């Protein structure tokens, strides 16, 4: 099982000089990437109060290529729109005993152990 839940606030830059035209181009590029992924799970890009947000979640049986695509998508959004920030939580029962968190700040992604849901046993599940 490969479970993931994440969100990104998409911003064209981390600075005060917003460029609506640049943000529109960035969103178009992100939408193209989403279209190539298909419709498995939740891939939702929408504007709220003048700001674009991306939400993603899913639970395929195995990490496989889809897991790499999701983590790659998360990182690519930060490359496309370097002012973006967000979190992607991943639980991969085949490789980890902890929930992993991919943190995006200023478009840069780093990976961390989650201190609130890890270790999986006994925090989320009984020993078995």
TrEMBL record:
The lineage, from the top, is:
Bacteria, Bacillati, Actinomycetota, Actinomycetes, Streptosporangiales
Q: At the top level of its lineage, which domain of life is listed?
A: Bacteria
One Pfam assignment = Imm7
Q: Cross-referenced InterPro entries, in alphabetical order?
A: Imm7 (IPR028965)
Q: What is this protein called?
A: Immunity protein 7
């Amino acid at each position: 099982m490969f479970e993931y839940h994440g969100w990104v606030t998409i911003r064209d830059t981390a600075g005060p000089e917003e460029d609506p035209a640049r943000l529109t181009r960035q969103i178009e590029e992100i939408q193209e990437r989403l279209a190539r992924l298909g419709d498995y799970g939740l891939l939702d890009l929408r504007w709220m109060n003048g700001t674009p947000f991306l939400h993603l979640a899913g639970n395929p049986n195995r990490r496989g290529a889809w897991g790499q695509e999701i983590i790659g998508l998360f990182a690519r959004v930060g490359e496309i729109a370097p002012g973006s920030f967000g979190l992607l939580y991943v639980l991969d029962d085949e490789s980890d005993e902890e929930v992993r968190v991919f943190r995006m700040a200023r478009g840069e992604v780093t990976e961390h152990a989650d201190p609130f849901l890890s270790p999986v046993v006994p925090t989320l599940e009984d020993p078995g």
